[in-house]
Amino acid sequence: MLRNLLLAGLVTVGALVVWPGQPSGRLVRIYGDLATADRVAIIVPGADTTVATFDDGTKRPGGAARALLAEAARLAPRERLAVVAWLDYDSPPTLSLSVITSDAALKGARALRRTISELHARTPSPIALLCHSYGSVLCAKAVPGLPVTDLAVFGSPGLDAPSAATLAQPTANAEPARAAISAPTANTPLGMKGGHDTQGATCPQDTHGTTGAQDDQGATGSPGVCGTADLLVSRHKASEEGPQSGATGAAVVPLRIWAGLGESDWVRFVPKVKLGPVGFGADPMNPSFGARVFAVGSGGHSDYFTPGTPSLRNLALIALGHEGEVTS
Questions:
Q1: The three-state (H, E, C) secondary structure of 59-121, written as one string
Q2: In terms of DSSP bridges, do strands 256-260 and 11-13 run parallel, antiparallel, or are they unpaired?
Q3: How far apart are CA 312 and CA 68, in angstroms?
Q4: Nearest Cα residue to 103 out of 90, 113, 94
Q5: pTM value?
Q6: Residue 323's closest CA among 256, 251, 253, 254?
Q7: Between 44 and which of 85, 131, 136, 320 could a Cys-Cys bridge form, CB atoms 3.0 to 4.6 Å apart?
Q8: Looking at residue 212, what DSSP letter applies?
């Protein structure tokens, strides 16, 4: 297996999948039980996120995923949520020219579309995208036509779309993708069985140590992390064309667009304009954009998943599909 990974241009270390030549690496972790989840949420982080900082509290995707899972369990203890902490792109440094262009977002959007395609091959559960800061730019590039029910952007520097309605429109190439997805099969990339996460739920188990088994290098993976290596390996064998739906003739699910901004978030001072390759475009918080604005509270740019905040509560409600309970 290790030889196959090396031939694919990947090196697996425990639950991490690192691309040679990419110092920050890439990492995707699944928290909760994907096999039995009623809903799935994907957290897409912004700038300055690396494998090394992935679990640095709720300001980063790993800690944010755990906080979201705990909040969802508090709000709806009988409902089952799985959370994907997603870093399958080269997050640009905040102090760099790349952070004011869409280059990294465009590349990341293709990877995100493949991830969602593969998740839907494993589970028919609805998927929500929760996208922070520069991650919102990436999600806006990816979302037209994707089989997701909700897109929540927060701390956004702007979106390259004139309105929420534009983002919600299926594209000509991807219109079938937001149709209902057929039930998962046993041979899908995330279709492995066995293992348990830290909450005792059954996780898909691969052979690379992501649920406590040993990988080909003898490393033991992290508990509560399911299917990381197989998910990423299969992704790089997939087509660049985006998700393919197995369902035909199914009804298209409407996409809900949400936007939130903390009272102390410095990104409110970033001009929401796009001049050639620089900048990102429309302010999703502007009433004319047409997003559903949700309450966030007084937090700063990295505080959206802090326990006890209105933002975490509302993001959990969006992830659970309780749109009528979200406060504005």
A1: HCHHHHHHHHHHHHHHHCCCCCEEEEEEECCCCCCCCCHHHHCCHHHHHHHHHHHHHHHHHHH
A2: unpaired
A3: 7
A4: 90
A5: 0.73
A6: 256
A7: 131
A8: S
Q: What is the DSSP string of 151-186?
A: EEEES-S-BSSS-HHHHHSPPTTTGGGGBPPPPP-T
159: helix, coil or strand?
strand
CA–CA gap between residue 214 and residue 230 (Å, rounded): 14
Dihedral angle, C-alpha 85, 89, 95, 98, nearest 10 °: -150
Phi, psi of 75 (to 5 degrees): -75, -35
In this prediction, residue 252 has a pLDDT band, given cuts at 50, 70 and 90, of low
**Distance of alpha carbon 99 from alpha carbon 250, whole angstroms:** 39
64 in Cβ contact with 52 (< 8 Å)? no
pLDDT tens, position by position, 29-62: 999 999 999 999 999 999 989 999 999 899 999 9
DSSP, collapsed to helix, strand or coil, labels residue 35 as helix
Cα angle, residue 176 at apex, residues 170 and 179 outer, rounded to 5° = 95
Pair of tokens at residue 129: 């995208």
Residue scoring higher pLDDT (206 or 284): 284
Angstrom distance (rounded) from CA 150 to CA 168: 10
Tokens linked to 23: 């110092």
How buried is residue 219: exposed, middle or buried, by Cβ count under 10 Å (0-12/13-18/19+)? middle
Tokens of 318: 């969006």
User: What is the pLDDT averaged over residues 118-146?
Assistant: 95
Please report the beta strands in the chain, taking only residues with DSSP state E, as ranges in sequence order.
Answer: 11-13, 16-18, 27-31, 39-44, 81-87, 127-132, 150-154, 256-260, 274-275, 278-279, 292-293
Residue type, 2: L
